[in-house]
Design a protein that fits this description.
The protein starts with a helix and ends in a 6-residue tail after the last helix. The longest helix is centred in the first third of the chain and has 51 residues. It has 3 helices and no strands. By secondary structure, it is mainly α. The relative contact order is 0.09.
């Protein structure tokens, strides 16, 4: 009787581990799909805005946090990864893009 219960507990534990692993993979896949969808929506909105305002190139202006660099090598790496060194604030279209995307956003019911 004890052996049977012990086997059932072990089986339930294994079933739970499988369920958790499958659930985690499903969640990661859903997150990936959502992230890609948002990224594509952002690109489409930026393209639409750029074409409407005769903007030929849109750059990513990153605000890198250098304080978290552990050593000179990591700091140098973070600096090298920057895409824009300086851009005048008047060229920042982030607010306009955000307002455009918010105006066009229509949530779908699940």
């Amino acid at each position: 009787d004890f052996k049977k219960q012990q086997d059932e507990v072990i089986q339930a534990s294994m079933d739970l581990q499988v369920f958790l692993a499958v659930s985690e993979q499903r969640l990661l896949l859903m997150q990936r799909i959502k992230t890609e969808s948002v990224y594509r929506s952002m690109n489409a909105a930026i393209k639409k805005y750029a074409e409407a305002h005769s903007i030929a190139i849109v750059f990513v202006a990153d605000d890198t946090d250098f304080s978290g660099a552990k050593d000179t090598r990591e700091l140098t790496s973070r600096i090298a990864m920057r895409k824009i060194i300086y851009a005048h604030p008047s060229y920042d279209i982030t607010k306009d893009i955000t307002e455009q995307m918010n105006a066009e956003y229509h949530p779908t019911a699940k």
